[in-house]
Automatic annotation (TrEMBL):
Protein name: Potassium-transporting ATPase subunit B 2
EC number(s) on file: 3.6.3.12
InterPro entries linked to this entry: ATPase_P-typ_cyto_dom_N (IPR023299), ATPase_P-typ_P_site (IPR018303), HAD-like_sf (IPR036412), HAD_sf (IPR023214), P-type_ATPase_bsu_IA (IPR006391)
Keywords tagged on the record: ATP-binding, Cell membrane, Hydrolase, Ion transport, Magnesium, Membrane, Metal-binding, Nucleotide-binding, Phosphoprotein, Potassium, Potassium transport, Translocase, Transmembrane, Transmembrane helix, Transport
Extent of the signal sequence: none
Pfam family for this entry, one: Hydrolase
Main location: membrane
Localization terms from the record: Membrane
Gene Ontology MF, one: ATP binding
GO CC term, one of those recorded: membrane
Length: 207
């Protein structure tokens, strides 16, 4: 047990150390373990150029009361990209993200704006008899193929475009995973992200 402390490992019992010798599969969470976990808004991708400004404003409005790192980064990017002044306060009802809805946004007397996971947003628009832009899935797939997380933005049930959330794989993981495989240990990544993003991160990290 004293030896493992040299590697910054705190073992609670000798039995725990012995069991580690029998491990042949290691399961790791993606966000914060394989990646740094500080996903930030990198780009706004409108369904067409006419929606460019509306996408930025709607993304901002849906995130102004979002205290998550992702939400704050969306607000920052919107302020950088939008040439006009954005409202500092919005009078409305904020709807926070939940595991059930997988979306967040705000409802005012005039409009409702939401951002969220592609499947959730597509289902919401379909339920309200809205139209799905032909290119929205390809935009989301392009973001996912780069290892990013796409968030679709809607205003009054109209899809405006996608927010590209970017995450970064931690340094040195490819080599670490290669070492584990040489030791006969299989690595498995688990995530609640979409399948294409997960596959891309797994491939790039060597997991």
């Amino acid at each position: 047990m004293d030896r493992v402390t040299q590697f910054n490992v705190l073992a609670k019992s000798g039995r725990a150390v012995e069991v580690c010798g029998d491990v042949d599969v290691m399961i790791l969470d993606k966000t914060g373990t394989i990646t740094y976990g500080n996903r930030i808004a990198s780009e706004f991708l409108p369904v067409n150029q006419q929606m460019w400004e509306k996408l930025i404003v709607a993304a901002y409005m849906s995130s102004i009361y979002d205290d998550t790192p992702e939400g704050k980064s969306i607000v920052r990017l919107a302020k950088q990209m939008y040439i006009n002044e954005l409202p500092k306060d919005i009078d409305g009802t904020y709807k926070p993200f939940t595991a059930e809805t997988r979306m967040s946004g705000i409802i005012t007397n005039e409009i409702s704006v939401f951002k969220g996971a592609p499947n959730s947003m597509i289902n919401l628009v379909k339920q309200q008899q809205g139209n799905i832009p032909l290119n929205i899935e390809s935009i989301c797939m392009d973001v996912s193929s780069k290892g990013g997380t796409p968030l679709i933005v809607i205003e009054n049930n109209v899809m405006l475009g996608v927010i590209y959330l970017k995450d970064v794989i931690k340094d040195g993981l490819v080599e670490r995973f290669a070492e584990l495989r040489k030791m006969g240990i299989e690595t498995v990544m688990c995530t609640g992200d979409n399948a294409l993003t997960a596959a891309t991160i797994a491939k790039r990290s060597g997991c």
